[in-house]
Amino acid sequence: MTRRLDRRRAQEVADLLRQAARAEIMPRFRCLGADAVRTKGGPLDLVTEADEAAERRIGTGLARLFPGCLVVGEEAAARQPALPGRLAEADLAFVVDPLDGTANFAAEVPLFGVMAAALLGGEVAAAWIHDPISDSTAMALRGEGAWIEDASGRQQELRVAPSAPPERMVASVSWAWMREPLRSRVAARLPGFAATVGYRCAAHEYRLAASGHLHVLVYNRLLPWDHAPGWLLHREAGGYAARFDGSAYSPLVSGGGLICAPGPDDWEAVRTLLLGTEKAGDGDPPPA
């Protein structure tokens, strides 16, 4: 039977993420030994002891709060590539990025986050993005809005930026995972925005977009733990998102790219600027 997620249950998950960050992430920040950082798929894909310890604590906590749920963490999926395939069949599942922005964390840059999303029958129903530095958590429940809560319990509603033409937009465009010729084509068109920024951290990029401080997000590789939380947060804050070909986002699909903008017209303007009439398949990631 599908389980309902309400604000009380959302708060329980937020508390769990905060506890994991306090216990496993912050004590290791700027204290990692040389052997505590490893590469996984390549130089852009790092893992640290903090990632692994936080994922273990979060997974154990979710299993306690929601007995029988499926937990798909980024590090577990790296060890068991078939694990994300179970999301489509799970009644209740959680995708978890225990430490988004690992490269920043390893470089001692205070810009990283903890991300999680709840899936009911394969659809994103709730989202959390916790910032260990400010000790605040951005949350969303499908159909019930998005908000941010600090450690004292004070809450503030999240809203995306107002509509604007691309030349007045601030955008975060992640082109590193695009394959040629799309990679070079998109990079060459970035001057069409007022400004572009890159934080090496989807957690903070989504939080900034959901709170109106970024107009546009563009991603290519759509691993569910990286984007299911932020997609719902942005949507419940009033934003509009779709894949490069205009189809709806799904946490069960990892290719096809994603554009997040304040509204449908803004989305179309951004797509025209960056992609023109290029076919959607050019945005798919290369085979692993």
Question: Any key phrases for this structure?
Answer:
288 residues, alpha+beta, Fructose-1,6-Bisphosphatase, Chain A, domain 1, D-Maltodextrin-Binding Protein, domain 2, 2 domains, seven-stranded mixed β-sheet, five-stranded mixed β-sheet, 8 helices, 25% strand, globular, disordered C terminus
Descriptive account of the structure:
There is one protein chain. Strands 3-4-5-6-7-8-9 form a seven-stranded mixed sheet, with helices on both faces. It is 31% helix and 25% strand. The protein has helices at residues 7-25, 49-65, 74-79, 102-106, 182-189, 202-210, 224-236, 264-275; strands at residues 37-42, 45-48, 70-73, 92-100, 113-120, 123-131, 136-141, 145-149, 155-157, 170-173, 195-197, 216-219, 240-242, 258-261. The protein has two domains: 7-157, 2-Layer Sandwich (Fructose-1,6-Bisphosphatase, Chain A, domain 1); 166-283, D-Maltodextrin-Binding Protein, domain 2, CATH 3.40.190.80. Helix 1 (7-25) packs antiparallel against helix 2 and helix 6 (202-210) runs parallel beside helix 7. It contains eight helices and 14 strands. Strand 7 and strand 8 form a beta hairpin. It is α+β, with helices and mostly antiparallel strands and 288 residues long. The longest helix is centred in the first third of the chain and has 19 residues, at 7-25.
